[in-house]
Amino acid sequence: MKYSKPDSEDNSDAGDGVVAVRRAMRILGAFGVDDSHLSLAELSRRTGYHRSTVLRLARTLAMDDYLAQRVDGTWRLARAAGWLGACYQATFNVHDVVEPVLRELSSATGESATFYVREGNQRICVVRVEGPRSIRHHVRVGAALPLNLGSPGRVILAFSGEAGEPYESIRRAGYMMSLGERDAEVSSISAPVYTSNWTLLGAICISGPLSRLTEEAMNGHKETVLAAASRLSRAMMGVHQGTSVSGQRMTHF
Q: Is residue 208 within a helix (H) or strand (E), and if so which, with residue range?
């Protein structure tokens, strides 16, 4: 796991905001979704600050319920931090985050990019960016399509825990390519998108005519699609920086 570490505790934030505030934010940002509590030593390691600095900041944050110290001396996020998270989730506009990622993906691949979520036994087209080419695959926003046909639906099923094949293979690969499965003239490649606590949110995909978006072409776009899914997942989780979401933890705000 990688953490942002200042070059010097004395001048890392100088000239770029209030030093004490930024240091306090680093303390809060050291916690990840799997960290119910952290020791002073671990907070010091993750932030790069001396233990005395971390202790002083932690005690200050605890005064307003952003942190709380447990009986064993470790620290956990407290009520005020949870309230900020709840406010963020309540005011968060998915479209504002999803659409820019889809636009970048469409621009990079030359194909239409779509974000689907599950609703019962169907997948719903939530956000769509049409590709730049005149011949392209069309799906309207709000359209309901089957889960068991096409790569976006199968990816949603696979990462929702569906048993058997092809879902085991999809989970191992981390993505799926579909050639003419739902529509004989359409192909697509999809990857899962997660939200907080590694909850599956949906699937991101590119799609296009089979004559152009061949298996070879999709293999060429695979890393671009996976990178877009990772970037979108990080945004949904409130992640500042880190590695791929395919099984590795990341640094959080």
A: strand 199-209
3-state secondary structure of 244: coil
Strand order in the sheet with 122-129: 144-146, 122-129, 112-119, 199-209, 186-195, 176-179
Neighbours of 49 (CB within 10 A): 22
17: left (phi over 0), alpha (psi -120 to 50) or beta: left
- Do strands 67-69 and 75-77 pair parallel, antiparallel, or not at all (unpaired)? antiparallel
Backbone angles phi, psi at 152, to 5 degrees: -60, -45
Alpha-carbon distance of 244 to 1, in angstroms, equals: 11
Q: Residues 129-187: pLDDT tens digits?
A: 998 887 776 788 888 899 999 999 999 999 999 999 999 999 999 999 999 888 888 99
- Alpha helix positions (H), 72-192: 79-91, 94-109, 151-158, 167-173
pTM: 0.62
Cβ 85 vs Cβ 253: under 8 Å: no
